[in-house]
Amino acid sequence: LSERLSGILSGLTRRGSLTEEDVNAALREVRRALLEADVALEVVRSFTDKVRERAVGAEVLKSVTPGQQVIKIVNDVLIDTLGGEGEVIGFDAVPPVPILMVGLQGSGKTTSTAKIAKRLTERNKKKVLMASLDTRRPAAMEQLAILGTQVGVQTLPIVAGQSAVQIARRAVEAARLGGYDVVMLDTAGRVTLDDTLMEEVAQVKAATSPHEVLLVADALTGQDAVNTARAFDARVGLTGIVLTRMDGDSRGGAALSMRAVTGKPIKLVGTGEKVDELDDFHPSRVANRILGMGDIVSLVEKAAQTVDADKAQALAQRLAKGNFDLDDLRMQLQQMEKMGGFGGVMGLLPGMAQMKNQLAAAKVDDKMIARQVAIINSMTPAERRNPDLLKNSRKKRIAAGSGTSPEAINKLLKMHRGMADMMKAMKKQKGGMLGKLGGM
Ligand code: GDP
Ligand code: MG
């Protein structure tokens, strides 16, 4: 009987694996979407290689085509590559904390400086001073001063005839004397990357040791974004990126390109000309915009949920018969791992709270889950079905195989025994939760 049940269980998950052909066919479509989204060619290549590595051999969910399954994997890799959510601007330093804004002319540096200053003042209750280091265009200094008035943030008084480095030093000094928390330095840009620009930015950096060096880049620049980001990162070293003009038609390929090439997080997104049009960066939203296949992604996510529910049902039926072997425990642990912690199959079932508590009492955290799955993987099928076989010599073998210790195995067995006993006890309660499930 248990043979048949485990056959059903694996049938639920294994409709088949993705072949190299499945993956390549879907990737042709993906490559086109990425290029249309203006992702740099070199990034498209390395990205699709990464996807191929992850996708070939991966399992295909029931009710989903191989192509759809690949798209979901592409989406996951895309979100991973775009990086974490909520990377914030750091202040963990002695005030005044200098923040240096760099980038090409017209990318939105001055506007973003004022937007960030406003946010830091209002949300983080920081006292901010802004200074324009743009010595070539007097209008640029005026622009920042006007924005400062608009957002209620102080700007450094303009003194004619000073170099960018001199102004930067004066700004930091004024911020220190004035008791400011943050001093934002808005540098001059050039239409194209050139050495004079880089040299000036590098000197300002050396003179002020900024806590953050933020590259401001226009999402509409697409392919060029890579060169800009790479050049600034190589010469001055970036700590993050502010992506502007995401309110425009851009599909956001620049975000992927810059992140992939520099590895630096995209911290904020500009969504308009107004001073409050600044957003946090949401990788999943940008991934959807780049790929434009959100429908497929949610379809596959739904299918994955169905599989989980099916598995939960099969497991429940098994439990209702009072069976709970180490294969079942492994399945439960893997579900928990997949769903990012406690919850798992048990979370999907009513009346299973007790079992969750058992796991919690055994202090099963995410790292431990991986270790416990490794232990069970190192057992033979017979041992998994009948843990009583596990005498010391077998435990030693399993410990060696899973890179753990016999104590860790004892702990796991103890937890399993506790859970199995509970199952049996619940089965005896006639008409109880499990009894009902068993009758299904
Ligand atoms: P800078 O030369 O890098 O300092 O760029 P500016 O801050 O002067 O911005 C250049 C132009 O882009 C201005 O007209 C800004 O209003 C506009 N701008 C900046 N950020 C955004 C944005 O996120 N969306 C839109 N639509 N326009 C922006
Ligand atoms: Mg400017």
Automatic annotation (TrEMBL):
Descriptive protein name: Signal recognition particle protein
Source superkingdom: Bacteria
Family per similarity comment: Belongs to the GTP-binding SRP family. SRP54 subfamily.
An example Gene Ontology biological process: SRP-dependent cotranslational protein targeting to membrane
Keywords: Cytoplasm, GTP-binding, Hydrolase, Nucleotide-binding, Ribonucleoprotein, RNA-binding, Signal recognition particle
Keyword Nucleotide-binding assigned: yes
EC numbers: 3.6.5.4
Enzymatic class: hydrolase
GO cellular-component term (any): signal recognition particle
Molecular function via GO: 7S RNA binding; GTP binding; GTPase activity
